[in-house]
Specification:
single chain; mainly beta; three-stranded antiparallel β-sheet; elongated
């Protein structure tokens, strides 16, 4: 299907037409005048700087002519302009670290976590130099998030699963061999695992310095497998931060694969 200068978000009918349509035209196009709002079905050139809206006539059929636009844009267009302005302004503030997005029921917010921080992994909201809210499947403790899964199938004496037990009701009473403090993540139990991390998939030009950092940083100690060939290519890893750097810029192409833990 042909588009009118861009995608349309909802189905619309044809614009106002004053001129008669030939008999060979589609039966759906009628010569009678139809009152339609032209703001939605056809493209609007939006100038975010001036806050103005200009109707784009290039997409109209030859037998149709648009209605005259009012000097003030409609409420629909004005709202779209405001949304676009806010989006543009927010995107100008770049994050030099890791962007964390926290999704609420109707809104979302973005915070920036420093690359070298140990609080970025599994975090949804970062503030005041610590993580304030974790993603689902992570347990927040001392400003850091740890991957955790509550014991599947476990219930307390009332038949409640871990998801239904508030942290205030955690206890040491065993049920089927486990207490809530042992079975549930919110009670500091459950099965914990290391937070995954990765290195950017980056290619460096011959002669350029190599510099890579783990994203996110999840530990205070890093090591490589015994078969790692970093030394043969003048590469080294910082055992405290996990940063990989070159001690001497490479003079020829090479590929190296190592396991960092």
């Amino acid at each position: 299907a042909a588009l009118w200068h861009g995608a349309r978000s909802a189905p619309h009918t044809e614009p106002d037409c004053d001129e008669p349509v030939s008999a060979t035209s589609s039966a759906l196009l009628q010569s009678r005048r139809q009152k339609r709002d032209l703001a939605e079905p056809f493209g609007l050139d939006l100038d975010l700087g001036s806050g103005s809206a200009t109707f784009n006539r290039s997409g109209l059929a030859a037998h149709c002519r648009p209605q005259a636009l009012h000097a003030q844009p409609s409420a629909y267009v004005a709202n779209k302009l405001e949304v676009l302005k806010e989006t543009t302004m927010s995107s100008k503030g770049s994050c030099s670290g890791i962007s964390l997005v926290n999704f609420d029921t109707h809104t979302s917010s973005t915070t920036c976590c420093p690359v070298d921080s140990l609080s970025c992994g599994g975090c949804a909201k970062y503030a005041s130099s610590k993580c304030e809210q974790c993603l689902g499947g992570f347990l927040l403790k001392d400003g850091k998030c740890t991957a955790c899964i509550s014991t599947v199938g476990w219930t307390n004496e009332l038949g409640d699963t871990c998801d239904a037990i508030p942290a205030a009701d955690c206890n040491d009473r065993p049920v089927n061999g486990l207490s809530s403090n042992q079975a549930c993540c919110q009670c500091n139990g459950g099965e914990k695992s290391a937070t995954p991390f990765t290195y950017p998939d980056t290619r460096f030009a011959v002669g350029a310095a190599v510099s890579l950092k783990p994203l996110p940083r999840t530990a205070e100690r890093y090591s490589v497998d015994s078969g790692c060939g970093f030394a043969a290519h003048n590469l080294t890893i910082d055992g405290a931060t996990g940063a990989i750097t070159s001690t001497q810029n490479p003079t020829k192409p090479f590929t190296v694969e190592c396991e960092v833990s």
